[in-house]
Amino acid sequence: MLIVSTVFLTGITSCDKYLEIKSDETFDLIDQVEDLQALLDNTSVMNASHASMPEIASDNYFITNQEWQNLTSLTQKNGYIWDNDVFNDSKNNDWFYIYRSVMYSNLVLDNINEIIDTEKREQIRSSALFYRAWSLHQALQIWTKPYEKESSTSSLGIPLKTNPNFDEVSRRASLEESYAFVLSDLKKSLFNLPIIADFKTRPSRGAGFALLSRIYLSMNNYTEALVYADSALQINSSLMDYNAKNLNTNTPFERFNNEVIFHATSINSLILNNPRGKIDVDLYNSYGDGDLRKQGFFRENGNYYSFKGSYDGSTRLFCGLATDEMYLNRAECLVRVGRVEEAALTMKDLLSKRYRERQIPDMMNLNNDQLLDFVLEERRKELIYRHSRWMDLRRLNHGGGRSVAVKRMVNDERYELRAGSSKYAFQIPLFIVENSGVVQND
Questions:
Q1: Model-level pTM?
Q2: Which of 110, 277, 333, 413 is the most buried (most CB within 10 A)?
Q3: Is the residue at 302 inside a domain?
Q4: CB-based contacts of 405, cutoff 8 Å, min separation 6
């Protein structure tokens, strides 16, 4: 019989070492495998509370000066201009949401060995490893420098929490150790996960392959990212044909559609919502007349446009794993390893479902550099508001060969996030540093 503190069932609100405990120290008894599965099936924690800062800090949108003044969230305002003090106006921030799901995963892993049913035990263990890897990779994209192999052993990574002991002293592993830990969790999970999950909110082998492809791409490891993109597409290569969709509605894409491999959404952020968040004008204009995404992703917002194309079928932003991302991963990696014709054919497969039939771009005669630029442009257009742009800015500016400087104007003051900036690693929340002793970023 397993004894588990109810703090994971009744709520956690801030940090003490990692997190302070809001509830009292009463205990519940867990004596069935279903109880551990229920912890992982808490979709409000494990699927619907993911970090929002990667989209807030990206260059997909802008807000007006008046809307800036009206924002009440200091975290969102400061994230928009890449200020040092981003996460300190609320303890319910990205750090909290990320490490809360890590705690749920560790609680399951800490108790799973008591379960007698071997098959169910190993599947639940694998699910918990997937969720932990999923969450820690988010943390890596927010609080560490972009991955570079040459400096990874000397650069700071993240705290690698492996048990639900709240009193354990926090220590930041190296960046190399952090990525290795996340990759190890995922690879250990693969073969005890179902190939396709019963529910898209649960991990699957296909989701494990897709997440491995995303992580290796964030490391600019194109060979491995290609291997796992191929593996994911062997399980599910479905694409919605936008020609057959009613793109005029406010929510044109249904939740759990056939492209979704693993369903997840981020915390709602007022700064991104319609009508406040307005799509970058140059980005909007990059969608040609034959590009159906222009109709499916955007709606008019005064003189500008706002986003409406979430794969959640709602105003919540989808940040999970889907087949279209895997096509783009595959195409980019193929270009980078010199397999240009295969890359062009992969893009043709995707874009035939995104453009009107006779208006699909001709890319078959592009050289390597031209095709890479084309793929990266289509990637940005396809994965807008998917929380992937921040990861792409980081990797392209550090070893990806395509530097980008991001600029904002607020009240006639210019803010710039330059390639190579230390601000690609956000400051850890101050109360985390004060309560845990974890080392702060520069």
A1: 0.93
A2: 333
A3: no
A4: 416, 417, 418, 419
